[in-house]
Amino acid sequence: MLVWLTRKENKSVLDKQLQEQLNKETEYYHNVLKRVIAVLKFLCIRGLALRGSEEVFGSPHNGNFMGALELLAEFDPFIREHIEQRELRPNPVISYLSKTVYEEIIEIMGKQIIKQIITEINNDDTKYYSIMMDSTPDLSHDDQLAIVLRYCFRGKVYERCVSFIKISSHTGLYLFNILEAFLETNGLLLDNCRGQSYDNAANMAGIYNGVQALLKEKNKSADYVPCAAHSLNLVGQESVKVATEIVNFFGIVQKIYVFFSASTHRWELLNRETKVKFTLKSLSQTR
User: What residues does the DUF4371 domain cover (predicted)?
Assistant: First the structure.
């Protein structure tokens, strides 16, 4: 052992040289990943898309991630040299700048954030939480179920979106099972839930088979509060439907909008003749 330790400290020994080379390479890629993570945090916090139509450095269509790295390279010689030596050569080598790497980093960051939120909720001073949940189709026409947790931590109230889950059914039992599995997977006790809020759809608000009723069976303390915004919207829509004057008014405004918006010349005349800062808008159910 003493002989081996002595040889290990000898810089002329091959093992020592290989270890030094390995340490330098490890430190080099640590510095690369620090810059990659900084760019990812900047883009993800702002909800900006990462990829473009091309994945080539130097292209104006390479997306925000590569574009941000190119901007950083203008002022950072380290990352500029890294891109030139590993990405712009005829046969690119490992660079840790590909979508495979940053998608894995984002997944790790997401899991860490969820872990932090769960830790805050399971804190002895917090413990209790409420649930908000709704689903909507995304651009690829897949139904995504959003789960939001509301809790109080160190005197402040937080609402955190903790998951988007692809779903294939809208029945109350199916959605409740999804919710229960999510809570169990992340170490949250259903008994500590003190509130639940959904829209007024029967599968969510139903008194027998709705999600709120199924959750109430497991936890009597989980009080259900209908979404106030959705309730107000429904009341507003139903109210104006029975008023003939309002229906006619919005119908006329919609016809005026269609008439002027169909022609750029008419729209220009409208703006010039009215001389006001207001503009026509298309009919909206919510508005």
Answer: 17-210
